[in-house]
Write a structure and sequence with these properties.
Elements: H1 4-17, H2 19-52, H3 56-59, H4 62-86, H5 91-96, H6 99-104, H7 109-141, H8 146-172, H9 177-203, H10 207-216, H11 218-226, H12 232-257
Helix pairs in contact: 1-7, 2-4, 2-7, 4-7, 4-8, 4-9, 7-8, 7-12, 8-9, 8-11, 8-12, 9-10, 11-12
């Protein structure tokens, strides 16, 4: 495991050497700003309606009606951004002809997988740090709940790391970065749409299918964290899912080593 840090640093440097990192950071910052302003405008309009009907003090609050909506928008943006970050984790090594050098070096498959996951995960942490700046502005002009705001950021971080693990697996099974992007995007869209499948299962009376789909949905667990509910069951979900995709990625890397 002593080589994990070296591989993670190498992966981060390769990201920032290419224009991909700067493109993702710039586009993500712009989209986050746009969605925050849209959510802020909607909150302002909603506040006007509540004041008109003299209901402002009864229901409206920053976390539930503004920050939660903003976090939901960010989770969708991450779904499209992270595959662009992870598509080259392993596929680029195959395209550039450096995969053989990496696999024959004195490092284990776990070193390679964990190093690349940590490198991409650190980059995602930078994105979440950018997200945290926007609710931070609300603490200057308003009074949001600190616990709910931070637990929501934790949820976004965990979702981002899960998406990295899925993207790494997609990148490990193909030589094409475009195909890796598409595979990871399809997998993430499936996870996003699982609540709809759960509703169909519950409507059809097959409760276990609905419960399973809802449990496998990352957004269902994110919603709990955005509400400020930090449950060990939700944390365990992310830990197990990340571990499962890391194991599948390791198996894919080892299969390439023995070919």
């Amino acid at each position: 495991m002593r080589h994990v840090g070296d591989i993670a640093g190498r992966e981060l440097r390769s990201l920032f050497v290419s224009p991909v990192a700067y493109g993702v950071l710039s586009l993500f910052s712009v989209l986050a700003s746009v969605f925050f302003l849209l959510d802020l405008a909607w909150f302002h309009e909603l506040a006007g309606r509540f004041q008109q009907y003299q209901q402002y003090d009864q229901q409206l609050n920053l976390n539930e009606h503004l920050i939660a909506e903003f976090y939901g928008s960010i989770s969708v943006i991450l779904l499209f951004m992270i595959p662009a970050i992870t598509m080259g984790l392993f596929a680029a090594e195959k395209t550039n002809g450096t995969e053989e050098l990496l696999l024959t070096s004195p490092v284990t498959a776990w070193d390679i997988v964990l190093g690349k996951l940590l490198g991409a995960g650190f980059f995602v942490s930078i994105l979440i740090g950018i997200v945290g700046l926007f609710p931070g502005l609300l603490f200057i002009y308003g009074d949001p709940e600190v616990g709910r705001t931070l637990s929501g950021l934790l949820g976004l971080m965990l979702v981002g790391w899960l998406y990295v693990a899925i993207g790494a697996f997609a990148s490990s099974i193909t030589r094409s970065q475009i195909i890796a992007f598409l595979i990871s995007l399809v997998l993430l869209l499936v996870i996003l749409l699982l609540p709809a499948v759960a509703d169909l299962g519950l409507a059809a009376g097959v409760t276990w299918v609905g419960d399973l789909c809802r449990y496998l949905s990352a957004n269902a667990h994110l919603e709990e964290l955005v509400k400020g509910i930090v449950d060990t069951a939700d944390l365990a979900y992310f830990a197990v899912m990340i571990a499962c995709f890391a194991l599948m990625t390791k198996a894919s890397v080892e299969s390439a080593r023995w070919r």
